[in-house]
Write a structure and sequence with these properties.
The complex is a heterodimer of chains A (230) and B (307).
Chain A: E1 2-6, H1 9-16, E2 21-27, H2 30-33, H3 39-55, E3 61-67, H4 79-87, E4 90-93, H5 97-110, E5 118-120, E6 122-132, E7 135-140, H6 156-159, E8 176-177, E9 180-184, H7 186-197
Parallel strand pairs in A: 2-3, 2-4, 4-5
Antiparallel strand pairs in A: 1-6, 6-7, 8-9
Chain B: H1 6-13, E1 17-22, H2 30-40, E2 46-49, H3 61-70, E3 75-80, H4 86-98, E4 103-107, H5 128-141, E5 157-162, H6 169-182, E6 186-191, H7 195-207, E7 215-220, H8 226-235, H9 243-251, H10 257-273, E8 278-283, H11 292-298
Parallel strand pairs in B: 1-2, 1-8, 2-3, 3-4, 4-5, 5-6, 6-7, 7-8
Helix pairs in contact in B: 9-10
Classes of the chains: A alpha/beta (230), B alpha/beta (307).
């Protein structure tokens, strides 16, 4: 899933201070699961803004709305919802960066008589897993060429601070990474897992240079499935 | 000959070599380089030039290495994977070779979070082992990674680091074997204080015959004070300093700790010389270049051999 954190309240407040009608728009998928941008968080943020502006004697209307996924047209196409979007001065999206951009794109494609302003209320962080209650960890960088079959199912690209393909570096100490004693050394985990599997020989040959073209280094990526296109 | 460097030829001849280390200044001050170079000249066989070590911005290792050549010393240019992609690395290597630099050390590099620009974006396009292979391909096949021919003669004696004190311990020798497989010519180890663990490591190296496929230089750093020892043990990844060594420094008493530190390093150097598989010493007297002559003399390593 994609994880995110809410921006500091003061930063959010500053970003919407010039508008009179604000719509806080939650997203019910990834950011709802990581409790950063779902229904509850949209309601809370809207209340906080109302209270803060109200205390300053600033008459601002703040509403909250929720869509299933801001990264998909079909969940935002309801005409009554679009009417509310049109009435707002600003849409404060608390989806991930994908949702913010897609909502902006969709609203401006659909509502043609008025430009729609969409701004973010979250900082999108990473693609990760929910490890424990209240704990998420990064697991994938979307490099476009998965190596997990060689590394015991532990990604050295995402989980090694230096993305080493022939680790561990000299900074691995007691199973932890040199940059942070709280962080597991990915290569230590890889070696432990491969040893348990009896597959340690898999990482003994030199792993050659990675082709970064399928990653973001090759430019912004596009995925086309011709068989699914209309 | 791989590059015909002084270091390579001495090792070929079977001499027990000693390399030193010079940290470039945090600015373009050539005098700092010249001053440190003068302290090392004649006392070591080649000098490592660090590449923005601990991710702190300094004069480039290539430029510093060039100044060293002008001063009559032989540099061993360090290159880290943190700050350059493969394009920049190969380009810089051409430049280094054009300047007459004949030794290099391939390193991953300290993470930028340790340095003075922790907000920087890192590169890590290729890792240190891939870097070894890249330089070997450039030298032996006369090709850059993509297969294009290199114009002119590219010669380099290829070094890399090895840290027997990092974890997992049982895997360290296999990582060294990967460096050998990639084509490394010589290895310089992390600072050794825990001689017991180092000898255990060297036994594995010798059992695998790795010392016959590359020259291994044992890394040592004299301890200046008890505080330095404690700091390094606690904060520098992959450094183990046994309590007995710290106790010995403490026992030397006020005013005598530095002398005791030098005594310890000399004893280590002599012991390492007798250790099977060790072809030389890498003496890292960090910001203590003025003590190198004294250490080398006391250890009985002077004068340096000539060709």
């Amino acid at each position: 899933m994609i994880t995110a954190d809410r921006k500091p309240f003061e930063e959010i407040k500053e970003s919407v201070k010039d508008y009179k009608k604000i719509m806080v728009l939650g997203c019910e998928t990834c950011v709802a699961i990581c409790q950063a941008g779902g229904e509850k968080e949209a309601e809370i943020l809207a209340s906080e803004l109302r209270l803060a502006f109200g205390n300053e004697g600033n008459k601002v209307e703040v509403n909250d709305e929720l869509v299933v996924r801001q990264c998909d047209d079909e969940f935002m196409a309801d005409p009554a919802f679009l009417e509310k979007v049109k009435e707002a001065d600003v849409i404060l999206s608390i989806a991930c960066g994908v949702g913010v951009q897609h909502a902006c794109n969709f609203f401006n494609r659909t509502i043609t008589d008025k430009p729609i302003r969409v701004i973010p209320g979250l900082n999108t962080t990473f693609m990760g897993a929910n490890i424990d209650v209240g704990l998420w960890e990064e697991r994938c960088l979307g490099c476009g060429d998965c190596v997990l079959e060689k590394t015991g199912g532990i990604c050295p690209i995402a989980r090694c601070a230096k993305s080493l393909l022939n680790g561990p570096c000299g900074g691995s100490s007691n199973g932890k990474c040199e940059i942070n004693k709280e962080l597991d050394c990915a290569w230590n985990l890889i070696i432990e897992r491969l040893e348990a599997l009896g597959d340690l020989d898999r990482i003994k040959p030199v792993e050659m240079y990675k082709d970064w073209r399928p990653s973001h280094s090759g430019g912004p990526r596009k995925r086309v499935r011709e068989d699914l296109r209309l | 000959m791989k590059s015909g460097s002084n270091l390579e030829r001495l090792l070929e001849k079977g001499e027990f070599v000693v390399t030193g280390e010079l940290g470039p200044p945090k600015g373009p001050d050539v005098e700092v380089v010249k001053k440190k170079a003068a302290m090392l000249k004649g006392n070591v066989d080649a000098v490592n030039i660090t590449d923005n070590q601990t991710a702190i911005v300094r004069m480039s290792s290539i430029a510093t290495a060039k100044i060293l050549i002008e001063e009559g010393l032989e540099p061993n240019m360090q290159m880290v994977a943190r700050d350059r992609n493969r394009i920049a690395m190969m380009s810089d290597l051409f430049g280094a070779s054009a300047f007459g630099i004949k030794n290099m050390l391939c390193l991953s590099g300290d993470h930028q979070s340790f340095g003075n620009h922790p907000e920087a974006k890192n590169v890590f396009d290729i890792d240190s082992i891939q870097m070894i292979y890249m330089v070997k391909t450039m030298r032996d096949e006369h090709k850059v990674i993509c297969g294009d021919e290199i114009e002119g003669d590219f010669k380099m004696f290829i070094g890399a680091a090895c840290n027997p004190f990092a974890d997992p311990f049982q895997y360290r020798v296999h990582r060294l074997a990967k460096k050998v497989e990639a084509g490394v010519d010589f290895i310089q180890t992390q600072c050794i204080y825990d001689m017991k663990r180092f000898k255990e490591f060297m036994k594995q190296v010798v059992d695998m015959g790795l010392h016959e496929k590359c020259k291994i230089l044992a890394g040592v750093t004299p301890l200046k004070s008890v505080g330095m020892a404690r700091y390094m043990a606690a904060n520098v990844s992959g450094i183990i300093i046994p309590e007995e060594m710290i106790d010995r420094l403490k026992g030397a008493g006020k005013g005598n700790v530095a002398t005791e530190g030098i005594k310890i390093v000399c004893e280590q150097m002599q012991e390492l010389k007798e250790t099977e598989g060790i072809a030389g010493i890498h003496l890292m007297a960090i910001e203590w270049e003025h003590k190198v002559a004294e250490i080398m003399e006391a250890a009985g390593f002077l004068p340096r051999p000539t060709l």
